[in-house]
Known about the structure:
The chain is an alpha/beta fold. 45% of the residues lie in helices and 20% in strands. It contains 11 helices and 9 strands. One calcium ion (CA) is lined by residues 179-180, 200, 202, 236. Residues 23-277 form the EAL domain. This is EAL domain-containing protein.
Amino acid sequence: AKETGKARCLVYSPRTSGPPEHDISLEAAMFQAVREGEFLLYYQPIVDAATRRIQGFETLMRWKHPTLGMVPPVRFIPIAETNGLINLLGAWALKAACVQLKHFEEAAKRPLYISVNISPRQFRNDKFLEVLDHALAFSGMSGSQLVLEITEGTLMIDPVHAESILVKMAERQARIAIDDFGTGYSSLAYLKRFPISVLKIDRAFIKDLPDAPKDGAICNAVLDLAKHLDLSVVAEGVETEAQLDYLDRRGCQYIQGYLTGKPMPAHAAMAALKEDLYA
Ligand code: C2E
Ligand code: CA
Ligand code: CA
Ligand code: CA
């Protein structure tokens, strides 16, 4: 295990208790991982529910540790959020994703978009707009091809500040998606106040479809709300044909989930786009 003089966050994994490699300081290992280039980006297709054609990709961060293997984001993102490393990782992800979109479009021979998760701390960082502008300028990508995924919580921490940032994002034509929609403790008032374009229905409401009447009612309500507010909807975590069929029939236009594509490395996403071309 790597030891440093820095304050450490010892992360034990009770569910995978066993080899001593798990007793390492994940936080210390993260700083090392940044230097070693162990962080990668995976891309998950977001498809049109009716045609199943790829419209864009969500960027999902991966950490490939030499001995621990793939460390899931649910383990390292919260640490990065606490120690501030998320600002560095997030800036890298945003820029790399924008550059990758250009390659995706060349493979697809049509316009696509890229969706990037922005954590609360990153969103509140003073440098965030600079980071955004740099990623757009460096990649030569239009802001209109970028979707930034934030949660209700991110907006609620400081709504006045959030509004000013969102307005500046809108000036750059970047779209805002509300991630995990319906799982936060917030009112719907922010949908009126903020310039939001996309609602992503959390997998929690999708996973038991089509046989869960309450989940179905919630999905219908979200779709109805989105229609009247002129927002797009992406259903997350779609794993079965029955779920896709249910959502498609109710007018959900976009789908993301294992059924239509798992998160994958860039080269595999390129291959998926080329297949799409001849479909
Ligand atoms: P999220 O943004 O809600 O991302 C969706 C998660 O659902 C991803 O987990 C994805 O792999 C998973 N998923 C997609 N389709 C299915 C499906 O059909 N079934 C199931 N069971 N799961 C599905 P992942 O990649 O482990 O990421 C977890 C969370 O970590 C993300 O949730 C996001 O909150 C965070 N995260 C990942 N990458 C980044 C990043 O670059 N920046 C930030 N700030 N957060 C990230
Ligand atoms: Ca997301
Ligand atoms: Ca989500
Ligand atoms: Ca989620």
